[in-house]
Design a protein that fits this description.
29% of the residues are buried. This protein has an 8-stranded mixed beta sheet with strand order 1-2-3-4-5-6-8-7, with helices on both faces. The chain is 31% helix and 34% strand. The protein is an alpha+beta fold.
Length: 189
């Protein structure tokens, strides 16, 4: 039976993807999870201000990330910029659908990791691992229509648009569409 119990380290030209080290990664996670762009592009509810980062929030974050390496149905990896050796985000395979050999991918890159192709390479590396090493047939994702940077990165990484779900997010006073994308084993180069 295929699972995500093995937590590999994957190495590319620009990034290294490695298992979460909660205490070591906490400073980067704090910056990333409070970043307005990360909140805007990954949240399923509009909030004009980031949530307060207090002791309770820090405990929740540490507790959450402490359990990630023990989960056999998901793979959470930290994106490390090889040029600096610093973590800049996370990339995740989740929503494991075993009978259909499929899963979801999501990524969040903090401000120190943007506009240098790190996210694109991280997506490509993890998708390649999913489709080739793990033998999955399909890796899918959804991206808000107003996140053009991520859509371009996913397309560069080999994902194709499959459709649009209309008005899935109420953001301020606007309805935002969701773009569904996927990479399939039979088309993966």
């Amino acid at each position: 039976m295929l699972t995500f119990a093995d937590k590999p380290t994957l190495v590319g030209e620009k990034v290294l993807l490695r298992p979460v080290r909660p205490e070591e990664d906490l400073p980067m996670l704090r910056v990333m999870l409070n970043d307005p762009d990360v909140l805007r592009y990954t949240s399923d509810a509009y909030t004009p201000e980031p949530p307060a980062w207090d002791e309770a929030m820090e405990h929740r974050v540490v507790d959450w990330y402490t359990t990630r390496n023990d989960q056999p149905d998901r793979l959470d990896l930290i994106v490390v910029d090889r040029a600096t050796g610093r973590g800049v985000g996370e990339v995740v395979l989740n929503e494991w659908d075993e009978p259909n050999r499929a899963c979801n991918l999501r990524i969040a890159i903090g401000p120190d990791g943007r506009d240098r192709g790190l996210g694109t390479e991280a997506v490509r590396l993890l998708t390649d691992h999913a489709l080739r090493a793990l033998g999955l047939n399909r890796v899918s994702l959804s991206v808000y229509a107003f996140n053009a940077r991520a859509q371009r990165a996913y397309e560069k990484a080999g994902f194709k648009v499959e459709g649009v779900r209309r008005q899935v997010l109420r953001y301020a006073d606007e309805w935002i569409d969701d773009v569904d994308m996927a990479a399939l084993a039979e088309h993966w180069a």
